[in-house]
Amino acid sequence: MPENSLRALTDAHCHPFDLVRAFPQAEHARRQLNVLAAASACDMEEFTCNENLSLKAAAEKAAPLLPCFAIHPQQLSAWKTNQKQECEKLLAILDELAAAGRIAAVGECGFDLYNAEFRETEAWQEKVFASHLEIALRYDLPIVLHVRRALHKISLFIKELAKCKAVVFHSWPSPPEEGFSLLRRGVNAYFSFGNSILNGNKKAASSCALLPAERILTETDAPFQPVQGEGFSQWENLPRIIKATAALRSKDAGEIESQIEKNFREVFII
């Protein structure tokens, strides 16, 4: 780790495999900005790409890129006739990666009930999420959640989530009351914010302003969820997200950046 890593930007959720297609110099940009990043993957091609980037960064003493792995809830819609086989295969891979210490978190996983196509797989989403939780608990790993129009599903798993090392809500979209409720119910929850607060999402902005500072994370979801008018999200968005977070909380941007980095390190144990 470089000495200046104590003042690093942090990205709690991104997709380097996809980002490099839009921005071939993405890894160079990450290192230049000194970004600690948790990299999501939902198949072995993505994971291998992220792990190779991670190993290279470690060898060159650059800011860490932390590989994560899970079945994304949207994947289930693509598996029309062989959901069981595909789920079993990828869950077995997840278990192997976790057992070998090759992932920093289980994620992103969860629920997506955004449209009729995704809602058709709701029952499968429950089964798969339960399996992800079992693996996260078995190996004492944090879990990164994708929850779109489905926060009510989380209530079904509160007891298990309360046992998790940490629970990161990627791109938190809900009002602060929902976040405080999770904390009161014993969930070691962290709430990650990205370009949604730059794009004027009022619920996200309210949560970013009011939830405890020690529970806030930043993310890009790169290359997805870009700033309005831009083609894709990237690590260069992070300083703007920090600045917007500081403004919402009426705090100094440097103070906010330091607190968020501390939070990131506590979640991912680096």
In which range does the helix fraction lie? 40-55%
> So what's the overall shape?
globular
Strand order of the largest sheet: 1-2-3-4-5-6-7-8
Radius of gyration, in Å, reads 17 Å
Question: For the report, how would you describe the main beta sheet?
Answer: 8 strands, parallel
Number of helices: 14
Percent strand equals 15-25%
Quaternary state reads single chain
From the N-terminal CA to the C-terminal CA, the straight-line distance is 10 Å
- Provide the low-confidence segments as ranges: 1-5
Which helices and strands, and how do they pair?
Layout: E1 9-14, H1 16-22, H2 26-33, E2 35-39, H3 44-59, E3 65-69, H4 75-78, H5 83-99, E4 105-112, H6 116-119, H7 122-138, E5 143-148, H8 151-154, H9 158-161, E6 167-169, H10 176-184, E7 189-193, H11 195-198, H12 202-210, E8 216-218, H13 238-249, H14 253-268
Parallel strand pairs: 1-2, 2-3, 3-4, 4-5, 5-6, 6-7, 7-8
